[in-house]
Design brief:
The complex is a heterodimer of chains A (257) and B (834). Chain A is α/β, with parallel strands linked by helices. Helix content of chain A is 40%, strand content 25%. Chain A has nine helices and ten strands. The longest helix of chain A has 26 residues, at 231-256. Chain B is of the alpha+beta class and 834 residues long. Helix content of chain B is 53%, strand content 17%. The chains are: A alpha/beta (257), B alpha+beta (834). Chains A and B meet through helix 3 and helix 4 of A and helix 1, helix 8 and helix 9 of B.
Chain lengths: 257, 834
C-alpha cells in the first residue's frame, strides 16, 4: 500500500481497444506499472507498440477500455471530461513533439495559460524564475513563430513545470530537434526532476538515456525495464524487442488457430 | 477566455475575415431593410401644399371590413384599403371652424388641370384654400366666377384650361406665388367645386388651430383622420399610404432573407475556421481547457467579430438603405414625396439581428469545438469528421417536411397568383433542409460524378475526386451557398415571370378593342362615348374605368384588404369590347345600380341573377346593386363589372379615363383611329392608340412589381456570391502545404490548377443541381396551380445565366487562390505549416 501511495502514476491492468467486436484493434493489453514520485522514466517501444495510447491513458487524455489509472492519488476511473480536464490542468504538465504552443500568445502568456484557465492569477515572479531557468526570460514577449524549434520546446517545458504539477508527460519532446538542441532540452528536463515526476515517451535511445529508468513496451505489453540506462544498452534492448514482438505475434496466432 | 479570444483574433485575422465579411454584408442588408421598413411605417410625407395648416383633417382611406360572417360573432374586422380619394362634405369645414380653439378651417380640393397652349400640367384648387400653403397674390385680385389666378401671366389675358373632361376659357384675374414649387391654378369656389368632379366634397380640410386641439365634437360619426406634422402630406398624396405598406412587406421579406442567408454563411465560415484550428483547440484541451471554456472562447471570438463588423456596417448600411430607396422612388414603387427615415431603431435592430445571427451560428460551431478530443493535439488532425448529428437530422426532417407540406398546400388549396405566397417560402425550406444534409448529398453526387470526370480528365480528375470525397464536410460548405444562390434566384425570377405572363394573359384575354381613347391626365367627357358609338365603322364603344371594390353583403369570405378589381363598362358597347361570356343574364343589362359577377364569387355569396348585393366602392361609398349577369373568370383574376356611370363618380378622377372602341368587320382600323383623333383633337392630353397601349400600360404596372422583386433577389444573390467567394478563397488558400507536397511528388503547377479547376466544377455541378431541385420544389407546384403546366413561363436563358454565373464564380474563387498559393517554391510551401 505504502509503495503505491508513493507512486505519482499507477496503471492497473489497463486495456485499450479501439473499435468494437472482431474489428477492434488492441492497443494496450493489460498494462500494470507504477511510476515513483520524483523519477524520470522513459517509455520505449517500436512503432505500433502502444506507446502513444499508454501516454494518453496515463495522462487522462483518453479513457481505458478497462483497468484503472491512479494519478497523484486520484482514481481516473469514472471521471467525466470536465473532471479530467481540471485534473490535467492542476496536476499534469505536457510537452508534445510539436505544435506545443498557442500561436496567438506570447511566450509568457503561453506559460501562464493553464493557470489563467483555472481562474488563478499567475505569480509573475515565479513565472519569470521559470522562464529564466529555461533561458528565455529576455524573449518572454515574443510570439512562438519568432522562436526556433528548440526554444519552442523550452517554452513548453517552462509551461509544464510552471504549475508545479505532480507529473510531466513528454511525447517525443525532441523528435523534431537536431541532436545538439535535443541534448539541451533533455538536460533541462532532467534538471526539473526531483521536484516533479517525468514520464517521457520516445523511440530515441539517446533521449531515453537521460532517464533514471526505461520501460519497454511491445504489442501493448510491458516487456521489460532498465535502471540507469545508457544509450547503448537501450539500443541493444530495442533491437531485440522487434524479434520478441514477432515471436509473441506468432504465438498468439498459433493459439487462436 | 475573452482576452485569449481577442489575442487569437489579432494574430489570426485571416481566419476571421470571411466571418467578418459575411456579418458585415448581412448587417448592411439588415440595416438598409430596417431603414426601408421605418420609412414605410412612418410614411412621412412632409406637407407642401397644406404646410400652413397645423392640423389637416382628411377622409379616412380605410374602412372597417368584416372578416367573419356577421351572423356568427361579429367583431373580427380588418381595415380595408380604399384606393380612391374618400372625400369629406364641404360643410364639415364650417363645423370644424366652430370648434373652440380653431381660428379657421378651410376645405381643399385638388384636381388635374391642363393649361392649353403651354401644355402645362397643374393642379387646380379653389382660391379660398390658397392660404393653406400659403399662396400670396403678386398682382391682380382674387378670381371671381370664370376667372383664375395663375403663377405666370398677364392680368386680363384669357387662358384655356382643360379639366374634368372639358376645355374652358378663363380670364386671368391675378398671379400668385408660394415658397413651394408645385404648379397650381386657382379657381373661384364654384368653378373649383364643379371641375373637381365631386361637387359638394372636399379632399381635406386645413384647420388653423394648435396641434392637439380636440376636434372630436365636429368629427363625430365622420370617417376622417386627423393628421399633423409630417403625416399631413399623406392628405396631399394618398397614394403614399399603400406604398408605405408595400415598403414594410418588401423590407421584411428581404431583410429576413438576408438574415437567413447570413446565418448559413456565418455558420459555415465559423465551422471552417474551427476546422482549420483543430490542432490548436486540441492543444488547449490537453493543457486544461474544459469543453465549456472552449465553447465560450469560440463564441467570444465570433461575438467580437460580429460587433466589429456591425459597427463598421452602420455607415454603409445607411447609405445602402438610401440608395435602395432612391431606386424605389425612381422606378415609381414609392412616390418621391415620401421622406426616407433611418433612425437609430433600425440600426439597433439590425445590429441586434446580426449579432444574434452570429451567436446562433457560433453556438453550432462552438458545440463542434467543444467536442474536440485532446489527443488530436498529438496526431495530425483528421480531416473527415462525423457530420450527421441528431440536430442536423431533426432540422432536415422539419424543413423538408415543411417544404413538402407547403408544396402540397400550394397545389391543393391555393388558387391563382396568391399561390406565390406559399411557393416562395417552400423554396427557403427546401434549401435549408438540403443544406442540412449537404455533406451526405455531396458525397453521393460526387460518387456519381467520378466516372464521367475520370473518363475525361485522367489523373487530375481522379485526384480532384479523391480530395472532394475526403473533405465532404468542407466541400459542402461551398456547395450550400451555391445551392442557395441558384435556388433562390431561379425560384424567385421564374415565379415572377410566370406570374407576369399569367397576369398579362388574364388581362388581354378579355380585351377586344381595336382602338383605345385615353386621357393621360384626368378623364374623358361623359358624352364622348355616345359620340364615338354613333361614328361610322364603330361596332361598339365602352368606357373603361378600373378601381377596387368590396362585396360587403352578403358575406362572401373572399374579401382581402385590397378588395376586388372592378371595371366600369358601358352597357351598349360591352359585348363588343369585352370577351367575357355570361353564363347567366346579360351584360347589356349593366345600367343603373347593377353588377355582373364571376360565377365563383356569386356561389360564395349565394346569389344569382336578380339578387341584391352591397358593394363598398373605392371611395368608401356603399351602394346596393342588383346582379344582372354571371360569367366565368380565370381563377385568381376575378373582377366585377359595373356600369361606368356608377363607378366613375366614385373614383378620384371622377370620369372614365378610357374608351375602348371595336370596329365593324371590314373597317380599316387605321382610318378609324384617325377619325377618333380628329374627334378628340380639341381635348388636351387625349391620345388614341390600339389595344397595345392598354397592354403596355398594364405591363408597365406589372414590371414595377417585378423590378422590385429582381432588385431584392439581386441583393441576396450578390450577398451569397460574396459568401461563396469568401468561403472558397479561405479554404483554398489554406491548402498551400498540400499543393507544395503534391508538386514535390511530381505535379506541375498546371496540373495542380487543373485538379483544382475540376474540384471547382464538381462543387458547381453539385450546388447547381441542388439549387435546381430547390427551385423546382417551389416553381412546379406554383405553375401547376396557375397554369396547369409543370414548367414556368419565362425565357430559358435566365436559368442558364444563373448557372453560368454560379459556375464562373466557383471557378474564379478556386483558381485565383490556387494560383496565388502555388506561387511559392514547392519545397518552401511544403514546409509551411498553415
Amino acid at each position: 500500500m505504502n509503495r503505491r501511495d508513493s507512486d505519482a502514476v499507477r496503471l492497473e491492468a489497463v486495456r485499450k481497444i479501439y473499435g468494437k467486436g472482431d474489428s477492434g484493434v488492441k492497443a494496450l493489453g493489460g498494462v500494470t506499472i507504477g511510476f515513483p514520485r520524483g523519477g524520470f522514466t522513459a517509455v520505449m517501444g517500436p512503432s505500433g507498440s502502444g506507446k502513444s495510447t499508454f501516454l494518453h491513458c496515463a495522462a487522462g487524455l483518453d479513457k481505458p477500455t478497462s483497468g484503472a489509472v491512479v494519478l497523484d492519488g486520484e482514481g481516473l476511473t469514472g471521471m467525466n471530461e470536465n473532471d479530467l480536464t481540471k485534473l490535467r490542468r492542476d496536476r499534469v504538465g505536457f510537452i508534445f513533439q510539436a505544435f506545443n504552443l498557442l500561436p496567438a500568445l506570447t511566450v509568457e502568456q503561453n506559460v501562464t495559460v493553464p493557470q489563467m484557465l483555472a481562474g488563478r492569477r499567475p505569480n509573475r515572479k515565479h513565472v519569470h524564475e521559470v522562464l529564466a531557468s529555461v533561458g528565455l526570460l529576455e524573449r518572454r514577449k515574443r510570439l512562438p513563430a519568432e522562436l526556433s524549434g528548440g526554444q519552442q520546446q523550452r517554452v513548453a517545458i517552462a509551461r509544464a513545470i510552471a504549475t508545479r504539477p505532480a507529473v510531466i508527460f513528454a511525447d517525443e519532446p525532441t523528435g523534431a530537434l537536431d541532436t545538439r538542441t535535443a541534448a539541451e532540452v533533455l538536460g533541462l528536463l532532467r534538471e526539473s526532476v526531483g521536484e516533479q515526476t517525468v514520464i517521457m515517451v520516445t523511440h530515441d535511445p539517446v533521449a531515453a538515456s537521460y532517464a533514471d529508468r526505461v520501460v519497454f513496451l511491445a504489442d501493448g505489453h510491458v516487456v521489460g525495464e532498465l535502471q540507469a540506462p545508457t544509450a547503448d544498452a537501450v539500443a541493444e534492448r530495442m533491437t531485440h524487442l522487434g524479434t520478441w514482438a514477432d515471436r509473441v505475434r506468432t504465438t498468439t496466432q498459433a493459439e487462436s488457430a | 477566455m475573452f482576452r485569449m479570444a481577442l489575442r487569437t483574433l489579432r494574430l489570426r485575422k485571416g481566419g476571421f475575415i470571411a466571418t467578418f465579411v459575411a456579418v458585415f454584408f448581412g448587417a448592411v442588408i439588415a440595416m438598409a431593410c430596417g431603414g426601408l421598413m421605418e420609412t414605410g411605417i412612418r410614411t412621412a410625407v412632409p406637407a407642401q401644399r397644406l404646410a400652413a395648416a397645423p392640423i389637416v383633417v382628411t377622409g379616412a382611406q380605410t374602412f372597417q371590413l368584416p372578416m367573419k360572417n356577421p351572423g356568427d360573432s361579429g367583431e373580427d374586422v380588418v381595415s380595408g384599403d380604399l384606393v380612391e380619394r374618400a372625400g369629406l362634405t364641404a360643410g364639415l369645414a364650417a363645423e370644424l371652424a366652430a370648434v373652440p380653439g380653431v381660428t379657421a378651417a378651410v376645405g381643399e380640393v385638388s384636381f388635374p388641370a391642363t393649361l392649353v397652349g403651354t401644355g402645362g400640367q397643374t393642379l387646380g384648387h379653389a382660391w379660398s384654400s390658397a392660404q393653406l400653403t400659403p399662396y400670396n397674390l403678386t398682382s391682380g385680385a382674387a378670381p371671381a366666377l370664370g376667372e383664375v389666378v395663375v403663377a405666370d401671366g398677364r392680368v386680363g389675358d384669357r387662358i384655356d384650361i382643360g379639366a374634368h373632361g372639358v376645355v374652358e376659357s378663363f380670364r386671368i384675374s391675378g398671379t400668385a406665388s408660394a415658397s413651394i414649387d408645385e404648379p397650381a391654378v386657382f379657381f373661384s369656389g364654384a368653378d373649383a367645386s364643379r371641375l373637381s368632379g365631386h361637387p359638394g366634397l372636399v379632399d381635406s380640410i386645413g384647420v388653423f388651430a394648435p396641434v392637439g386641439t380636440d376636434l372630436s365634437a365636429a368629427l363625430n360619426g365622420v370617417s376622417a383622420e386627423i393628421l399633423t406634422g409630417d403625416d399631413r402630406g399623406v392628405a396631399e398624396h394618398p397614394e403614399a399610404l399603400p406604398s408605405g405598406e408595400n415598403l414594410i412587406v418588401l423590407s421584411a421579406v428581404s431583410g429576413g432573407m438576408g438574415i437567413l442567408v447570413a446565418m448559413f454563411v456565418v455558420a459555415s465560415t465559423l465551422a471552417l475556421s474551427i476546422q482549420q484550428r483543430q490542432r490548436e483547440l486540441a492543444l488547449l484541451r490537453a493543457i486544461g481547457t474544459t469543453p465549456r471554456q472552449l465553447r465560450r472562447m469560440v463564441i467570444g471570438e465570433a461575438l467580437i467579430v460580429a460587433v466589429l463588423a456591425t459597427a463598421v456596417a452602420i455607415v454603409p448600411g445607411s447609405l445602402f438603405g438610401r440608395w435602395l430607396f432612391e431606386q424605389l422612388t425612381a422606378n415609381g414603387v414609392v412616390p418621391p414625396v415620401v421622406a426616407f427615415h433611418q433612425g437609430f431603431i433600425p440600426v439597433a435592430v439590425a445590429i441586434g439581428a446580426a449579432v444574434v445571427t452570429t451567436l446562433v451560428a457560433a453556438f453550432a460551431a462552438a458545440r463542434r469545438a467543444g467536442r474536440t478530443r485532446p489527443t488530436e493535439a498529438l496526431a495530425d488532425a483528421a480531416i473527415q469528421r462525423h457530420w450527421l448529428t441528431g440536430t442536423r437530422i431533426v432540422f432536415a426532417i422539419l424543413c423538408l417536411g415543411g417544404g413538402l407540406a407547403l408544396s402540397i398546400v400550394t397545389v391543393a388549396v391555393m388558387t391563382g397568383p396568391v399561390a406565390a405566397s406559399t411557393a416562395g417560402p417552400a423554396a427557403m425550406l427546401w434549401a435549408i433542409g438540403l443544406a442540412m444534409l449537404s455533406p451526405g448529398i455531396t458525397n453521393v453526387m460526387t460518387a456519381i460524378l467520378q466516372w464521367p470526370l475520370r473518363a475525361v480528365s485522367g489523373v487530375n480528375g481522379y485526384l480532384a475526386m479523391l480530395n472532394v470525397r475526403a473533405r465532404t464536410v468542407r466541400v459542402a460548405g461551398a456547395v450550400t451557398p451555391i445551392m442557395l444562390a441558384t435556388g433562390i434566384a431561379t425560384a424567385n425570377i421564374y415565379l415572377q415571370t410566370t406570374q407576369n405572363t399569367i397576369a398579362d394573359l388574364a388581362f388581354t384575354e378579355n380585351l377586344r378593342a381595336d382602338a383605345v381613347v385615353s386621357a393621360q391626365v384626368g378623364g374623358l367627357p361623359p358624352d364622348l362615348v355616345g359620340r364615338v358609338q354613333r361614328m361610322p365603322g364603330v361596332a361598339g364603344a365602352s368606357e373603361h374605368v378600373t378601381s377596387q371594390a368590396f362585396i360587403t353583403a352578403p358575406f362572401t369570405g373572399t374579401n382581402d384588404i385590397e378588395g376586388l378589381p372592378v371595371s366600369g363598362v358601358t352597357a351598349a358597347g360591352v359585348t363588343e369590347t369585352n370577351a367575357v361570356k355570361p353564363v347567366a343574364g346579360k351584360l347589356t343589362d349593366l345600367s343603373g345600380n347593377t353588377v355582373a359577377l364571376p360565377e365563383t364569387l356569386a356561389a360564395d355569396a349565394g346569389v344569382g341573377v336578380g339578387d341584391a348585393v352591397t358593394l363598398r366602392l373605392g371611395d368608401g361609398t356603399s351602394v346596393d346593386v342588383r346582379v344582372v349577369a354571371l360569367f366565368a373568370a380565370r381563377s385568381g383574376f376575378e373582377n366585377l363589372l359595373v356600369p361606368a356611370q356608377l363607378l366613375a363618380p366614385h373614383t378620384t378622377v371622377g370620369l372614365a379615363p378610357q374608351i375602348l372602341v371595336r370596329a365593324t368587320p371590314g373597317t380599316d382600323v387605321g382610318r378609324l383611329t384617325e377619325t377618333l383623333r380628329t374627334l378628340t383633337a380639341s381635348l388636351p392630353g387625349v391620345v388614341v392608340g390600339d389595344q397595345a397601349v392598354l397592354v403596355a400600360e398594364h405591363e408597365k404596372a406589372q414590371d414595377i412589381g417585378a423590378w422590385v422583386n429582381y432588385l431584392m433577389v439581386g441583393m441576396i444573390m450578390a450577398y451569397t456570391v460574396i459568401s461563396v467567394v469568401n468561403t472558397l478563397v479561405m479554404s483554398t488558400a489554406r491548402r498551400r502545404r498540400e499543393f507544395g507536397l503534391q508538386r514535390l511528388t511530381g505535379s506541375t503547377r498546371m496540373q495542380v490548377m487543373r485538379m483544382m479547376g475540376l474540384e471547382g466544377v464538381m462543387i458547381a455541378v453539385v450546388g447547381v443541381v441542388l439549387g435546381t431541385i430547390v427551385a423546382a420544389g417551389s416553381i412546379v407546384p406554383f405553375c401547376l396551380v396557375v397554369s396547369d403546366s409543370v414548367l414556368p413561363s419565362g425565357p430559358l436563358w435566365i436559368y442558364f445565366a444563373v448557372v453560368a454565373v454560379a459556375g464562373a464564380i466557383v471557378l474564379l474563387a478556386t483558381l485565383m487562390p490556387t494560383w496565388a498559393a502555388t506561387r511559392l517554391r514547392p519545397a518552401d510551401a511544403a514546409l509551411n505549416d498553415d
